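#struct-help
A.M.: can someone run this one for me? Single chain, 517 residues.
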Amino acid sequence: MASTTIYTGHRVVVIGAGVAGLAAAVLLAARGLEVTVLERAAAPGGKMREVAAGTARMDGGPTVFTMRWVFEELFAEAGAALGDHLALRPVSVLARHAWSERERLDLFADTEQSAEAIGRFAGAAEARGYRDFCERARKIYRTLEGPFIRAARPTPLSLAAGAGLRGLTDMWGVSPFATLWAELGRHFRDPRLRQLFGRYATYCGSSPFLAPATLMLVAHVEQAGVWLVEGGMHRLALAMARLAEAHGARFRYGAEVAEIEARGGRVSGVVLAGGERIAADAVVANADLAALAGGLLGDAARRAVPKPAPERSLSAMTWCLEAGTSGFPLARHNVFFSADYAAEFRDIFERGRLPAAPTVYACAQDRDDAGAGPDGPERLLVLTNAPAIGDRRPFTGEEIASCERASFDLLRRCGLRVDRRPEAVTLTTPLGFERLFPATGGALYGRSLHGWSSSFGRPGAATRLPGLFLAGGSVHPGPGVPMAAMSGRLAAAQLLGHLASAARSGRTAMPGGMSTR
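D.P.: on it. Structure tokens below:
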């Protein structure tokens, strides 16, 4: 998006104000297009939502801010500076991990500090394995950032063709055909450490026993920097919406799109659930691919996109609560591991049921980097992985209660006591996520990333319907806040390229001119 061409008079509708839709809206509005963002919720953010629990409000979705450069580049392309719109503080403690009341391990942003902690926890050999693992993660990230993460829609052939001889050697070094769990065994003998770093697969909604070894790159992403967003992650969505509005984008909340219309073989606009029609020369759909492929946005959109793979990613059970805590010294991010990791993922992906012994993530949102928190009740997001079957059957009250008991019992065994009050707890199940994000079953990451080729299974921004572009975690380059934002950038770039191509070919189907200044 290095061109300075200004596109005036062209009308673009962005469906969905998740981070991908917001990124596209920012860039398109900054280039002079008439942008309307339609969001059926009452606020921007999508999965990066804010949830009420009692009198408190807190992040109910993503809680970790990484790959800051994605947003610095985004804001810069819109003539702004990220630091002027968002207060960010780097963290030194990435997460605190526990297996029991006596087994605890902190990971740090500083690699050597983490290695020393691992050495004390599991021995010098494991510390050496960690250092080797970090170097491997760095090489994988370096190999894939340009040709995969930033590329419009890479394929195995395009990666090989652009790599050259040295690049092909680097590509082979990422172990494309191995699973994450198998490759972790080359670095760690301690099963607890394999479990800890295997959790990186869940960042993409997948099982470490089936996901590709390339996900080791997540370790490098975290070591490159994790930040706390003052006021919570939802502030990022608000900042992006305000930046888009500053460039003239119009946001309409409570506006549900029922259909994407096409005339003359190309996009012509959208129809809202209430019947209102909004004309558009192009549409960016920040919706799950399954919603479009399932016909929820009309037949034209259904025909324009590929059918998604049937293997859904993880859903979740989340408890947003305001509660008193004691015992365990909470950090901002905390992970409490189950005794049998393999059984947990068999329950979810093979048996389609809530895990009998879940791993639990707890984000203590009032804690600073040193772990200091309030004297009284604090805000917690407690999360366990779950199967994405919210559109097939709801879990029974007993199934939910059993999962809750197992989750909070694990916290107690690790030393953490949480004094819950029913009136200050908001629970979201896979059925709840299905209602928020229809046609997903509650899957939070699109398709699962299982098998070496799954990384290439997500569609790019372009579709078979001219003028319709896709963005979001279910399309390339994948899920997660920075990746979704990158998909929005890619969609905006392809949309602008589409307009430029139409102008060069002399097409006059779209009103308005194109000028440079």
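A.M.: thanks! Residues 165-169, 507-517 have pLDDT under 50 and may be disordered.
D.P.: also worth noting: The first helix runs from residue 19 to 30.
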